[in-house]
Design a protein that fits this description.
The complex is a heterotrimer. By secondary structure, chain A is an alpha/beta fold. Chain A contains 21 helices and 19 strands. Chain A folds into two domains: 5-248, P-loop containing nucleotide triphosphate hydrolases (Rossmann fold), CATH 3.40.50.300; 282-504, Rossmann fold (3-Layer(aba) Sandwich). In chain A, α6 packs parallel to α7 (175-192) and α14 runs parallel beside α16 (408-420). Chain A starts with a strand and ends with a helix. By secondary structure, chain C is mainly alpha-helical. Chain C has a two-stranded antiparallel ribbon with strand order 1-2. Classes of the chains: A alpha/beta, B mainly alpha, C mainly alpha.
Chain lengths: 522, 273, 359
């Protein structure tokens, strides 16, 4: 049978660097293909070649051929592929053209010139298929991340594409919303026979659903395509469960928690790790914090204590009030009730410069902090010591680079250096792991541990369960603006399965990370 | 703060020879509708003349035709998206600067965008910016078509300035253009509102600042000059000119860099080989 | 039989309002103008929705009031020398010679005030009519009703309208973020500190948007042939040239009359034909388009009739259309029809849909 999509010897190069080198890939009817690899190896570029956005939107020179049903489409622009290939980008909200879900679903069909009756029927079908019928009249920008993602998928599905291309569909979502979206995708593959090609950093979420995998190892090595279990055996980026399997020498490698549990029955576990005593030096005391946003209560009677030398993780679903709490602790966000005590001062009473000296906050969009044209200018404007901090965080960034041309991780480090320059003792970070691969996350974890060791109190808001497991001493879980649980990481994540890392799901509490088992497995 | 601006920039909406002709004819037409008090010649025995309200209906049609003609070849999605977001930014700048007397920031981004993306884009952006701001805040009124046309000319003119000028000279040129454009815009808008707001002089009345159809164009030009001098040149127009110039000088280099980064991404297309 | 609640086609409301505005522009009779304003007010209060734009009507009413006040004040300040009965004797303030010997203030006559009032009222009625259209017609649906040739620009406008709320969020976010770091503190430099990230953010977003549109088929190749394109160009150009001649002849009343109104009409029609022709190049369809139903047509007919009657009044009953400032204005049967016919729109249009219900 002829494959649905075939890439032949795809090579993409910019002026000097070659991003893709002779990539061959086929996608069959009705399969889910996962593209994986470290940050910056060209996963998005590969997807772009399939949709036609590369090289038209990115520049660069493309060689090779793209075949759809055996017909070359490499010269066709994205719009001429729209009827067969649907694309959902990293930030679905940015690609919305209209303002209600219903109109958005119809947009693509209008462009294809479908008759009104067909459009009406398909819109209703798709609303039901994705379970978003109740959202039809809602303003798109008031929807939650998971809902937006599903509307975005719906807006391409109405064109009845045969291949769906998704770039990091779950990276901005909390664990529950991510599962909803992935369940939707699996249903499309199984019930409608749609093929799905998706790139994702959070392998632990997607690997169980993938039929085949494209591994882009980077560093000039060849792209490999094959069975996920085979490829993950030597992949440079793997989810914790595979790492566990690799260390334990399990074959075949387990890809789901269920398989891993079965394999783990044979494992003899050592004594659980000692729970090390945590540093006990309260730095910032917040009690009874209440914040009101319009007529809704964003935070209600929240108590948080940040200790010097500890990394605290702030978890909770999207919209639970994590960002609000960070900004309230920092002092910018006006609170309705409660008290904050930072060495005897209330952060809300300080002026911006005073706040900077006491509390560092890295906002969700770190790029908002940058406004100059080179890294050197940014460091100079940031004040003395910025460059030294940056070099300690990520060495070797060129002075003359435009800050917006840096990689995700480098930009994060630059922004972090800027907020750390006035030497504050409290460090707050809002969703710093978005767009980072396992290596970059490991690097960030190392940075946060260093900060804690230097006597900083670190609070990091995230819904990356595995990252929390690797870095946090304690966890605070927010829901609907209230603290639902807080305490040492081991205890809190053991109590709520949604926040449990894979290792704990397989081996049970109190195990958090693979490296804790090092001794046991060797 | 170095102006790391290169002279190369893309032309987002290319103007074909045909578009140029259409644009010229339409501009002449627009100018006639704006300057009608100076062109009008009354026959003998006509005692009253009313402002031609017809123009308020005709001008939108002319603008629509020109804009359609300029997007005739189809507009690239990237150009269109940039057009949309820049219109939104302009509408917002207009909204935030409208409250403070004379401080109007609309022109600043319009001029810089016209410079970077070319004359055709500048023209269309002028139209869409004003229309978007009318839809969002200011409201659609009879004055809107005239404002759209004048703003379109401002954007167009910025795109027609000499391309070779770069660096500090470029900023100086744009600032100077901003001052000229601000005053011209003020004068043209006044001209369009003059007979409507003040009414038409009744024959026999003296010493009025109203438009007098029986008098010659020169006389009316002088009356109008006095009117515009008294009402706005000293206040609104000067405020607008100063704000535009300052904004261009201070924010220009950084914004030009940003726009050029966007224009490179939006316009450069290297085809597959 | 009462019609089910629904939103009337936005273009229908605009045409209705333009009809009323046309009638208003052809008269200075204060009674007639006030009748039109009253009719507009009634229609707006009964037929507007609860959307944000529907609340804008008050703004236009105030604008109209301001136009009247301005006009009367202007007469007081500069109205010296208008013959008639003096009601307020103010001292004259002569200006320097270079402003044409204009004198400020001076005796104010009743006629001067009335002339200002009548003219101001006409402008105010015009503004209020446009305001009515603004508050009755859904601007987003209006954009969807743009002719196909303006599809691109219409889409850009839709984008602008939807991007704006995000833009304000983006500005708030960046301002808060910039307070977290050290940097330039000068007044204008501070502006740069948040303008640059906002713009960068905006452009990133615009590129994502363009990608989203392109991958969903925006701008698929049309069917226009070279001949069709040439026809479009010729029509547009010829039409515009015709309008130029028409406008010139309209202004220069010594020119042959045949070149004025007829040329204007022909030129406009030809240009519009070009517009329609240009719109045929791309095959697109509309999802749930606003349809023209009897109610829409009736509302438009009402507007057109008001406009036509106003024009008749202007040509045949000059004394009523432009009452002298020395006598009490009067109203004829036709004038009464012009003033009140607009009200029929309330009867023929369906009640508005209340938000939250099904579309």
């Amino acid at each position: 049978m002829r494959p649905l999509l075939e890439l032949r010897g795809i090579t993409l190069s910019y002026d000097e660097s070659t991003v893709l080198d002779a990539v061959d890939l086929t996608v069959e009817e009705g399969e889910l293909v996962l593209v994986s690899g470290p940050t910056g190896v060209g996963k998005s570029t590969l997807l772009g070649v399939v949709t036609g956005l590369v090289p038209r939107f990115s520049g660069g020179v493309l060689r090779g051929d793209v075949l759809l049903d055996g017909v070359s489409i490499v010269d066709a622009p994205p719009r001429e592929r729209a009827h067969a290939i649907g694309y959902v980008g990293q930030d679905p909200a940015a690609a919305f053209v209209t303002d209600t879900a219903e109109d958005e679903l119809a947009y693509g069909m209008e462009q294809l010139g479908l008759p009104p009756e067909t459009m009406r029927r398909r819109v209703e079908e798709t609303l039901d298929l994705l379970g978003i019928a109740h959202l039809r009249d809602r303003d798109l920008h008031t929807l939650s991340g998971g809902e937006q993602q599903r509307v975005a998928i719906g807006s391409v599905l109405t064109m009845h594409p045969r291949l769906l291309v998704l770039d990091e569909p779950t990276s901005a979502l909390d664990p529950t919303a991510a599962e909803d979206v992935l369940a939707t995708l699996t249903r499309l593959v199984h019930d409608l026979g749609v093929s799905v090609l998706l790139a994702e950093h959070r392998l632990e979420r997607v690997v169980p659903f993938a039929d085949r995998m494209v591994l882009m190892p980077g560093g000039g090595r060849r792209v490999e395509v094959g069975d996920p279990a085979d490829l993950l055996a030597h992949s440079p980026v793997v989810p914790p469960i595979v790492e566990l399997g690799r260390r334990a020498g399990w074959s075949p490698l387990p890809l789901t928690v269920r398989d891993a549990r079965r394999a783990a029955r044979t494992l003899t576990l050592p004594a659980p790790p000692d729970v090390a005593d945590l540093a006990d030096e309260p730095l910032l005391l917040a009690t009874g914090i209440g914040v009101v946003h319009g007529s809704t209560v964003a935070l209600r009677e929240v108590d948080v204590t940040l200790h010097a030398g500890r990394v605290t993780a702030l978890m909770g679903r999207n919209g639970a009030g994590k960002s609000t709490l960070l900004w309230a602790l920092q002092g910018t966000r006006k609170r309705r009730a409660g008290a904050i005590d930072l060495d005897g001062d209330d952060t809300a009473a300080l002026d911006p410069a005073g706040r900077r000296g006491r509390v560092a906050l890295l906002p969700q969009t770190a790029a908002d902090l940058l406004y100059l044209e080179t890294v050197a200018e940014e460091c100079a404007a940031g004040g003395a010591g910025t460059r030294e901090i940056l070099d300690r965080l990520v060495p070797g960034i060129d002075d003359a680079t435009h800050p917006r041309d840096l990689s995700e991780g480098q930009r994060l480090a630059l922004a972090l250096a800027l907020v750390l320059a006035p030497a504050p003792r409290v460090v707050l970070l809002d969703e710093p792991t978005r767009g980072l691969d396992y290596n970059a996350k490991g690097e960030l974890a190392r940075i946060l541990r260093t900060l804690a060791a230097d006597g900083h109190a670190v609070l990091v808001a995230t819904h990356d369960v595995e990252f929390v497991a690797s870095v946090a001493d304690e966890v605070v879980v927010l829901a609907e603006g209230e603290v639902v649980s807080s305490g040492p990481t081991r205890r809190v994540v053991a109590e709520s399965p949604a926040f449990a890392p894979q290792v704990m799901k397989v081996l049970g509490a109190p195990w958090l990370r693979v490296d804790e088992l090092e001794v046991a497995l060797t | 703060m170095s102006a790391t601006t290169s002279g190369t920039s893309g032309i987002a909406i290319p103007l074909s020879a045909r578009s140029r002709v259409t644009l010229t004819v339409a501009s002449v037409l627009g100018l006639m509708m704006l300057c009608w008090p100076l062109l009008v010649r009354v026959g003998d025995g006509v005692s009253r003349i009313d402002p031609p309200f017809l123009f308020l209906l005709l001008l939108p049609v002319v603008i629509a035709v020109v804009v359609a003609e300029m997007s005739e070849g189809g507009m690239d999605a990237r150009v269109l998206a940039i057009l949309g977001v820049l219109s939104a930014v302009n509408a917002l700048l207009r909204l935030v600067s409208a409250g403070t007397a004379g401080v109007e920031l609309v022109f600043f981004l319009l001029i810089l965008s016209g410079r970077v993306f070319g004359a055709g884009f500048g023209f269309v952006l002028g139209v869409t910016s004003l229309f978007a701001s009318a839809l969002l805040t200011a409201g659609v009124g009879p004055w809107l078509p005239f404002q759209m046309l004048c703003a379109a000319w401002v954007g167009l003119g910025a795109g027609l300035l000499p391309r070779r000028v770069t660096g500090r000279a470029e900023i100086a040129m744009l600032a100077a253009y901003g001052v000229v454009a601000a005053y011209l815009f003020g004068a043209l808008m006044n001209l369009s509102g003059w007979p409507f707001l003040l009414g038409v002089a009744v024959p026999g009345a003296e010493g009025d600042l109203s438009f007098d159809p029986t008098a010659g164009a020169l006389h009316n030009l002088r009356t109008f000059a006095a009117y515009t001098l008294i009402t706005s040149t000293g206040s609104f127009d000067t405020g607008r000119a100063i704000t535009t110039a300052i904004a261009v000088v201070v924010l220009g280099p950084a914004v030009l860099t940003t726009l050029r980064r966007a224009s490179r991404r939006a316009v450069v297309v290297q085809t597959a080989s | 039989m009462s019609a089910l609640p629904r939103d009337l086609h936005p273009v229908a409301w605009w045409l209705w309002a333009i009809g009323l505005a046309t009638a208003a522009s052809l008269t200075t009779n204060p009674l007639l103008l006030l009748m039109i304003v009253g009719v507009v007010g009634v229609v707006v209060t009964t037929r507007r929705t609860d959307h944000p734009w529907a609340r804008s009507f008050r703004f236009y009413v105030w604008l109209g009031v301001a136009a009247v006040v301005l006009r009367v004040l202007w007469r007081v300040v500069l109205g010296g020398g208008y013959p008639g009965e003096v009601v307020l004797d103010l001292p004259e303030v002569p200006l320097p010679d270079f402003v044409l010997g204009v004198t400020l203030l001076g005796p104010v006559t009743r006629e001067a005030l009335l002339a200002g009032l009548y003219d101001g009222l006409r402008l105010a009625t015009l503004v209020i009519c446009v305001g009515a259209a603004n508050s009755l017609a859904n601007p987003k649906r209006l954009l969807r009703s743009l002719p196909p040739a303006l599809y691109e620009v219409g889409t850009a406008l839709v984008v602008a309208v939807t991007v704006l709320p995000q833009l304000t969020q983006s500005i708030q976010r960046v301002r808060a973020a910039q307070a977290l770091r050290a940097g330039d503190t000068g007044r204008v430099r501070r502006l740069r500190r948040f303008l640059v990230p906002v713009l960068e953010d905006t452009f990133d977003r615009s590129l994502a948007l363009a990608a989203g549109m392109d991958t969903r088929g925006y701008g698929r190749a049309g069917t226009a042939t070279a001949t069709e394109r040439r026809t479009t160009g010729a029509l547009v150009l010829a039409g515009l040239c015709g309008v130029v001649v028409g406008v010139y002849a309209l202004l220069d009343q010594t020119a042959p009359r045949l070149l004025a109104a007829p040329m204007l009409v022909v030129g406009t029609l030809v240009a519009v034909a070009g517009l329609v022709n240009a719109g045929r190049r791309v095959q697109r369809t509309r999802y749930r388009p606003d349809r023209w139903r009897p109610a829409e047509l009736a509302v438009v007919a009402v507007g057109l009739m008001v406009g036509a009657l106003g024009w008749w009044l202007n040509h045949h009953e000059l004394a009523i259309a432009y009452p002298a400032v020395t006598a009490t204005p009067e109203v004829s049967l036709t004038a009464l029809a012009v003033g009140l016919l607009g009200l029929v729109a309330v009867v023929v249009s369906p009640p508005p849909r209340v938000q939250g219900g099904a579309r």
